[in-house]
Specification:
alpha/beta
């Protein structure tokens, strides 16, 4: 009986919520929450990716959305669990146009966090399982069109005699996953990729690049990696997988294609996009354009006084491919985050004399430590407990961003104690370590600024052993003919300088292809508005502009690591599909650049 208590409590709370919503009583519904409460919604109520913080915000959202949402059929799925006084339960529900699922967390009979996410659009569900396509028409027909013939016709016509409803700019992991989602929803889509082959965005990187995240975290939708796939995927293997994926998922994927310009006709609600496809200019007229150009925008190049005087080679890390050409040379690497560490290792392995120039402290976490304590729900052990990648995605998404720092701070207290000796040796080498302004570590740096962290897969031992030199705590004054002059008067000779200085925001790609005006209108991407330097404000409770409506109609941003691209590609695709089918999508909440 005691084991059933959490489930009964969850069922009672869900029934109370259902009754309040059915009665259209937003106040009664909000009173079912504790004072310090959060409701994170992915499309079901708000047609947005947004978090309501506090009972007043929840009541205001419900007042604005209940009449059109019309939620019904609330049901628990499985048994609720209880941990240190918090009851957690999963549930399903329906709205007027969609089905949804969610997770609730209760304390003392009221809700602390509620998460709701769209599963399918009614009448436009993906054709899978029992609804999968037959694949053949069992009838003699002299006009029969085979699968190969149909694909050839689609490839021949789309973008020529038939216009895509959606154009995805960028054919890396994010664009490919979104393309697969849109394909399964029947949205005519073209993905354009500047490289010669799908997967080249990985193949063309430096030879030692390997994913730092584990395989369970990195699956693509529909086709997970096989069970014998390595825990950490080498770049070329990843490139081959992406190329295979584009073919198997039947994506309309244009290689060797660059976007030259794009403009939006507000009256026609249509884009005009000019692309260069293997030297031929083509004009496309999509209704929606998605920038899936990676996690970030163009390279961020810092101003280095005296750069014109330097006699050696000066390149940004985006131009770096291999350390072979630097064998026997002195190379300075400006930066101390992920790319800088990886480049330093590649240079050292290639026989270069490498020095890392650290301009600010770096958050470092050992890979094996992060695997054991940070990726616990994305692991083989998690699978054995029934936590699939899809379920783990939901668990992660169900935690409001406002509550993530506390959990990360506690995690890093464990990490700092566990690896204290390692951090002591690293500091003794002259390397500056921090764990963020508020001790919340790597993940919060990734969300807030996208910089300043490294998952150690070998570089730190080279630094500790003195095989990679380190200059930290002193600023660069200028470049000289022979190298770098520092503010303290010391000099470093260098035959080459690799600037691992990061990237600009994704909206800078919009500035280059659409206009400065539209780029400023939508504003920067990523960041939470935490008040940390480099994190654009104000606080909105969500990542700015990602995977949701922006201030420019018909313009979307999609990207991030493999996990974020996998999870949120579904919600970008559902939003675009709904618009294609003429389903009303009243967006609750202002676009990111409008504040709150």
């Amino acid at each position: 009986m005691l084991e059933m208590a959490p489930t009964k409590q969850a069922a009672a709370w869900l029934e109370s919520l259902a009754q309040a919503l059915a009665a259209g009583d937003a106040t009664a519904a909000s009173n079912l929450f504790v004072d310090d409460c959060y409701w994170r919604d992915l499309l079901t109520f708000t047609w947005n990716v947004t978090t309501m913080e506090g009972r007043e915000a929840i009541a205001a959202m419900l007042e604005a959305t209940l009449a059109t949402t019309k939620p019904t059929a609330w049901q628990l799925t499985g048994e609720a669990t209880s941990d240190e006084g918090t009851i957690e339960a999963w549930f399903t529900f329906e709205t007027a146009v969609a089905s949804g699922q969610g997770i609730m967390r209760l304390r003392d009979g009221r809700c602390r966090t509620l998460f709701t996410a769209m599963t399918d659009l009614k009448g436009f569900e993906e054709r899978k399982g029992l609804a999968r396509p037959l694949g053949v028409r069992h009838k003699a027909d002299p006009e029969r069109e085979t699968w190969a013939e149909a694909r050839a016709r689609e490839t021949r016509e789309l973008g020529v005699t038939e216009q895509p409803y959606c154009l995805v700019i960028g054919g890396g992991q994010g664009g490919i996953m979104l393309g697969a989602r849109l394909r399964q929803l029947g949205v005519p889509t073209i993905i354009i990729e500047k490289n010669a082959r799908a997967g080249d965005s990985w193949r063309n990187r430096y030879r030692t690049l390997v994913l730092h995240d584990p395989v369970w975290y990195d699956h693509l939708p529909y086709i997970p990696f096989p069970e014998n796939w390595p825990v950490f995927t080498p770049k070329d293997k990843m490139g081959d997988w992406l190329e295979m994926y584009t073919r198997v998922m039947e994506l309309n994927y244009w290689v060797a294609t660059k976007c030259l310009s794009a403009s939006y006709d507000e009256a026609r609600r249509e884009w005009t996009v000019v692309v260069d496809r293997v030297g031929r200019q083509i004009t496309l007229k999509p209704k929606h354009v998605v920038f899936a150009t990676g996690a970030y925008g163009p390279p961020r190049k810092i101003d280095l006084p005296g750069a014109s005087a330097f006699k050696g080679e000066l390149v940004h890390s985006s131009q770096y491919a291999s350390g072979d050409r630097y064998r026997g040379k002195k190379v300075a690497v400006i930066g101390a985050a992920s790319s800088a560490h990886d480049v330093c290792v590649d240079l050292w392995e290639s026989g270069a004399d490498v020095t890392m120039i650290q301009r600010s402290p770096t958050t470092v976490v050992k890979s094996d430590t992060l695997m054991e304590v940070g990726f616990e729900i994305f692991s083989e052990n998690a699978l054995a407990r029934g936590i699939t990648t899809e379920k783990a995605d939901m668990i992660v998404a169900s935690t409001p961003f406002a509550l993530v720092p506390n959990g990360q701070r506690a995690l890093y207290e464990v990490i700092k104690a566990r690896d204290a000796a390692f951090y002591d040796r690293l500091r003794a080498s002259g390397f500056a370590i921090d764990f963020g302004d508020d001790e919340t570590g790597l993940l919060m740096k990734a969300y807030r600024t996208g910089s300043g962290y490294y998952i150690d897969v070998g570089a730190c031992d080279l630094i500790i052993d003195g095989k990679i030199g380190i200059r930290s705590g002193v600023a660069i004054k200028a470049l000289t003919a022979k190298g770098i002059l520092f503010e303290d008067g010391s000099e470093l000779e260098a035959d080459a300088i690799i600037a691992c200085t990061g990237y600009q925001s994704m909206n800078e790609n919009v500035a280059a292809l659409v206009s400065r005006e539209v780029a400023d209108k939508v504003g920067p991407c990523w960041g939470l508005g935490s008040g940390v330097k480099g994190d654009p404000g104000p606080w909105q409770g969500e990542l700015r502009n990602m995977w949701k409506p922006t201030a420019q109609e018909g313009l979307w941003f999609h990207g991030g690591n493999l996990a974020l691209s996998r999870f949120y590609s579904k919600y970008v695709a559902l939003q675009i599909k709904a618009r294609m089918e003429g389903i009303a999508t009243p967006v609750y909440g202002k676009p990111s650049n409008a504040g709150r």
